[in-house]
Design the sequence.
């Protein structure tokens, strides 16, 4: 049993109770399909979806500066256990109620080496 298992379980339980379904689309860079034609990557990216529960909240007006934080940005809270501990990256996207959002900023709560929670700034 790792040191922060109880914190991970609490985050997962609360997000499952209060959150809603969201889709994390994982983008993986693949090898070029034809090494003799590197200028023609075709689709060198593979995508995989995972549906998790997340809590989505708007950003307060006091934090909006129209450069780093914009009016329609949102914050998503996702349990690290819910995404099976893969690293969420800025290349990934989040779909909420059919609207695709890109990830602008990622903050992870990681006491020690164990990830407990992802806090994502999203932009449609």
Sequence:
């Amino acid at each position: 049993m790792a040191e922060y298992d109880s914190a991970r379980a609490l985050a997962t339980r609360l997000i499952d109770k209060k959150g809603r379904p969201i889709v994390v689309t994982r983008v993986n860079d693949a090898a070029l399909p034809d090494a003799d034609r590197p200028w023609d990557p075709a689709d060198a990216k593979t995508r995989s979806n995972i549906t998790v529960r997340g809590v989505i909240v708007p950003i307060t007006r006091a934090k909006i500066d129209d450069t780093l934080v914009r009016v329609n940005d949102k914050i998503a809270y996702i349990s690290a256990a819910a995404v099976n501990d893969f690293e969420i990256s800025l290349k990934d996207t989040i779909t909420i109620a059919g609207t695709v959002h890109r990830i602008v900023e990622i903050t992870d709560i990681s006491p020690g080496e164990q990830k407990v929670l992802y806090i994502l700034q999203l932009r449609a």
The first helix runs from residue 5 to 18. The beta strands are 20-29, 45-58, 74-79, 93-96, 99-109, 117-123. The CA atoms of residues 29 and 45 lie 5 Å apart.
